[in-house]
Amino acid sequence: MSKVDDHLDAIALCLDNDLRTPALVLIYTGIDIMAALSRPALVKKTGKRQFIKWAEHHMGCQERIGVSGLDLYAARCGIVHTATAESSLSDDGNARRIFYSWGHRDKPEPTAGAEISGRTDVVVRIEDLADALCASVALFRREVRDDPVLASLVRRRSGKLFMVRAAAP
């Protein structure tokens, strides 16, 4: 899982250099990657269900950052596909739109609660989202260490992810 560390390092580099949208893309793809590594053996493809399960179980998204796994999945779709807060799930009122703040916690947060068409949008600090992902990876590593069956599954899947081959001379 050293490539996961590379991914987390890339998020930190983006945040350290005020590259907020690339950091968000990396955070959301990081959740996708971790959901793919942890999905049950008989689940062939990673999708919305696995993403939400990872966000809720491993990241503790509701407790840590005040959003549901579905809210995060909708935000992922918006950021990854259009670099916006918009997604089909939020447009249909099935998930809250997530807007982002960044920087020090001692500064006042923007108001998170503008009512729009009967739903409440929310503001999430990008650093809190990154911290939740890092904590979830640490939790998952402990689970892998303690579960030989999961460890075997993750080793097999890790071998397929992050394939990099040098160009022929």
Query: SSE order, as H and E?
Result: HHHHHHEEEEHH
Q: Report the uncertain regions.
A: 110-114
Write down how many β-strands occur, each being a DSSP E stretch of 2 or more residues.
4
How many angstroms does the end-to-end distance come to? 29 Å
Sheet/helix structural class: mainly alpha
Proportion in β-strands: 5-15%
Backbone CA Rg: 17 Å
Q: What's the arrangement of strands in the largest beta sheet?
A: 1-4
Rounded mean pLDDT score: 87
Q: What is the global morphology?
A: globular
Number of helical regions: 8
Could you say how many structural domains there are in total? 1
Major beta sheet, specifics?
2 strands, parallel
Helix content: 55-70%
Descriptive terms for the model:
single chain; two-stranded parallel sheet; two-stranded antiparallel ribbon; mainly alpha; 169 residues; globular; 8 helices
Describe, in plain words, how this protein is organized in 3D.
The chain crosses the membrane at residues 23-42. Keywords: Membrane, Transmembrane, Transmembrane helix. It contains 8 helices and 4 strands, in the order ααααααββββαα. The protein starts with a helix and ends in a 9-residue tail after the last helix. The strands form 2 sheets. Strands 1-4 form a two-stranded parallel sheet. It is mainly alpha-helical and 169 residues long. The longest helix is centred in the last third of the chain and has 21 residues, at 126-146. Strand 2 and strand 3 (119-120) form a beta hairpin.
